[in-house]
């Protein structure tokens, strides 16, 4: 075999090897782009009739907590939030709070809970700041959604979360959030 032909064959082999190596064919089946990314601090439940987005408890100044969460009713029927039960992940004790203001979820619409202080007087004696709590949201018809949500300190980031229920005289009736709702299949 001639020297020129050997050099060409060697160069072609190196180029093919470099092309395969540089195209990331060896990254395997669990590349970072396949991993779920959650940029917010809150927790999500993306299955079921009512989905929860960015759920968290925000500490109030009087040893109580306010619930902040986006609620998406994926059904064709109106759903009403009837109660929220809060339990620590470790230890004992639970607290059940009923919404101070009506929380009616229209079909296929996102409702942002927390701006009006709908569930803002949750007794904080059984949970601890900086930990997680198990929340069970009970809806009309007996449907329940359970989630483990973080308990965060009140900072400027959470200034939109009301510490107390907003009285009906000082505010209009709570409305669904203005953002477009995601489709039920997403």
What is shown here, in short?
This protein is mainly β and 186 residues long. It has 1 helix and 10 strands, in the order H-E-E-E-E-E-E-E-E-E-E. Residues 151-186 are annotated as: Disordered.
Write the layout of secondary structure elements.
Elements: H1 3-22, E1 43-45, E2 50-59, E3 64-73, E4 79-88, E5 95-97, E6 104-105, E7 110-113, E8 122-123, E9 132-139, E10 144-152
Parallel strand pairs: 2-10
Antiparallel strand pairs: 1-2, 2-3, 3-7, 3-8, 4-5, 4-6, 4-9, 9-10
Describe, in plain words, how this protein is organized in 3D:
The protein has 186 residues and is mostly beta strands. The chain has a domain at 43-158: PCu(A)C copper chaperone (Immunoglobulin-like, Sandwich), CATH 2.60.40. 11% of the residues lie in helices and 33% in strands. The chain is built from one helix and ten strands; from the N terminus they run H-E-E-E-E-E-E-E-E-E-E. Strands 1, 2, 3, 4, 5, 6, 7, 8, 9 and 10 form a ten-stranded mixed β-sheet that branches. The longest helix has 20 residues, at 3-22. It is elongated and about 90 Å long. 24% of the residues are buried.
CATH architecture of the domain at 43-158: Sandwich
Helix segment count? 1
Describe the biggest sheet? 10 strands, mixed
Q: Approximately what portion of the residues adopt beta-strand conformation?
A: 25-35%
